[in-house]
Specification:
single chain; alpha+beta; Aminopeptidase; 8-stranded mixed beta sheet; 8 strands; 29% helix
């Protein structure tokens, strides 16, 4: 899907200067609004079962808002797709918390480069029991900072028009919002990443 506006050659040159800056330290330690400690780190190949359990635990509504479709169980093909990260053009960061002495995935933020190499599409998903506790904000901030560090100039997200939580999150971070011209039930959020570069 085309992004608007398309960056100029000068913007592309500016973005190229920020490619592959110093590696950030992971895992990131953080606390939710209620003080619950969590860690955020890149998704790894041996996290497959964590990802499966996380998706299976989502409510039908949360799955529909995230994937813009209904399904009862995540297919192997979907899991394969979600696990396919290269930590550059496609990346994912999972949020983990300890519950009953067990580490579980409670949220994930992802980005993937679009056909326009200077732009990426993002998605945030938070487990139902962990929503409205500030986790989406932490994941989005990490995702924006990492995408900017990787040299992307623009970030976008395609969401259901009924997804109020994503609308609020996008507005908090300064995303622009407009209707998807190909589907009036969806909206496109877009963000210029220039201000996020140090």
């Amino acid at each position: 899907m085309a992004l608007s506006p398309r960056p100029s050659e000068a913007a592309r040159d500016l973005c190229a200067r920020f490619l592959h800056t110093a590696q950030r330290e992971f895992p990131l330690k953080a606390s939710l609004a209620d003080g619950t400690p969590i860690i955020i780190r890149p998704l790894q190949p041996d996290d497959r079962q964590l990802e499966i359990d996380f998706l299976r635990g989502l409510s039908p509504r949360s799955r529909r808002l995230r994937f813009l479709c209904d399904f009862k169980q995540p297919s192997e093909a979907l899991i394969d797709q979600l696990m396919d990260v290269d930590h550059d053009h496609r990346d994912a960061f999972i949020a983990l918390a300890t519950v009953d002495d067990r580490l579980i995935e409670i949220g994930v933020g992802r980005y993937c480069a679009t056909d326009d190499a200077s732009a990426c599409e993002c998605a945030i998903t938070v487990a139902d029991d962990w929503q409205r506790r500030g986790l989406g904000t932490l994941l989005m901030r990490n995702l924006i900072e990492e995408a900017a560090r990787r040299g992307f100039c623009h970030m976008m997200s395609v969401d259901a028009a009924s997804n109020r939580a994503m609308q609020a999150l996008a507005a908090h971070f300064g995303f622009r919002r407009h209707l998807d011209p190909l589907d009036p039930t969806q909206v496109i959020h877009s963000l210029d990443l220039a201000a996020w570069r140090s």
